[in-house]
Amino acid sequence: MSGFAQLLGSMISENGDAFVLTPVEYMIGNPLLPALHGGAVASFLEVAAKRALARQLPHGHVPKLISVNLQFLASARPDALVTTPKVRRVGRRIAVVHAEAFRRGDPAAVCFAQLEFAVHEPIRVGGNADRHTL
What we know:
The structure is a single chain. By secondary structure, the protein is of the alpha+beta class. It is built from two helices and eleven strands, in the order αββββαβββββββ. Strands 1, 2, 5, 6, 7, 8 and 9 form a seven-stranded antiparallel sheet that branches. It has a two-stranded antiparallel sheet with strand order 3-4. The radius of gyration is 16 Å and the shape is elongated. The two termini are about 15 Å apart.
């Protein structure tokens, strides 16, 4: 994950299948509204989708983001955002995940995302007696 995604990951809590982002002041992109920066919303959906997908993969398989398609529907006020990513397809090489971001307590979505991940098996090094996962 990128440095920002790692930082953001520390602000994301999980409650069952749901992920919650508790925003901080430096995530504000437009202080006049105020509204969260679109990159913070996109990164939140990416981190949540990757974690949801990793739960469904065999141990050691690492999903890597290939592409993301975002549709911003409304400005994201600096309130907690909630998403419950849905893994739509897991193939041999590609997985597709859909995620929607909502403000807590508001049924109107702020952003829709479709994310495609490459699903890689663990890379093995060493001989049969000494195998390590990178």
